[in-house]
Design a protein that fits this description.
This protein is mostly helical and about 250 residues long. It has two domains: about 70 residues; about 110 residues, no CATH class. Helix 3 packs antiparallel against helix 4. It contains seven helices and no strands. Helices cover about 65% and strands about 0% of the residues. It starts with 7 loop residues before the first helix and ends with a helix.
């Protein structure tokens, strides 16, 4: 017995979870690489300082004792002597090593900054590309089913205002079951009118239904039975037009 394929929604969720796990793993690797680079810079800086030199005890100088003034004056020795050349110290290599350590530290800081920015971008889920959402058109049969569901809600609810709201929500639900997704820039009114209007049916009737739905949601004055009758007439007109197109 063959197993039924997973629904597209579950497959999309599995794919999204796999992408999130991959992003988290990559972010952890980047953080480990940044810490390793900083550790290398710290080791290089410690090696550049060289070993510490131990200094022995410092003895205090003996107090100055003035010479006896009775001693005879002697002329100092004014002979010229040659100053020995200074030995070259290791200051040059130390300066070069310090410069290299500073350059390495700056490079590590830049890499760490890039990693932080990269990790923040990876933490945010990518926006869904437009091409990932297939273009699906509402068929005539699906449109007839949507109108039939809306009509059933319209005549079932006892309150006229609740009936109009339920009928419009039934249209939205039927369109969603058909696999059509709403553009984030669209309102729910525009979404239903645009999808049903693509079937070349009476646009005025659609706009009037949307107007009644807006009144039911936002107006302080509740809808009356005459409004329910008008909505029912508009739905019957749209259903008749779809019936003629299907013949």
């Amino acid at each position: 017995m063959t197993q039924a394929p997973a629904p597209p929604e579950l497959a999309a969720e599995d794919t999204g979870a796999a992408r999130r796990r991959a992003r988290r793993s990559l972010a952890a690797l980047l953080l480990i690489a940044a810490l390793g680079a900083l550790g290398l810079v710290a080791l290089g800086s410690a090696a550049e300082r060289g070993p510490l030199v131990e200094v022995g005890e410092v003895s205090e100088p003996e107090p100055f004792q003035p010479e006896d003034a009775s001693e005879e004056y002697s002329e100092p020795d004014w002979s010229v002597y040659t100053v020995p050349p200074r030995e070259e110290s290791g200051a040059g290599p130390r300066v070069a090593a310090t410069v290299l350590v500073v350059i390495a530290a700056v490079a590590a800081a830049l890499v760490l900054l890039w990693l932080v920015v990269r990790m923040r971008s990876l933490a945010r889920p990518p926006r869904e590309e437009a091409e990932d959402v297939p273009d699906v058109d509402l068929s005539l049969e699906q449109a007839r089913t949507a109108l039939a569901d809306a009509r059933a809600r319209l005549i079932t609810d006892s309150d006229a205002q609740d009936a109009v709201v339920s009928a419009w929500l039934a249209l939205e639900a039927a369109i969603a079951r058909a696999g059509i997704r709403r553009d984030p820039a669209q309102t729910t009114f525009e979404f239903v009118v645009t999808v049903l209007g693509s079937l070349s049916i009476d646009r005025e009737a659609l706009d009037r239904l949307a107007h009644l739905y807006r009144r039911a949601l936002f107006d302080d004055e509740p809808l009356a039975e005459t409004d329910r009758d008008e909505a029912l007439a508009r739905l019957d007109l749209l259903a008749a037009q779809l019936e003629e197109r299907q013949r």
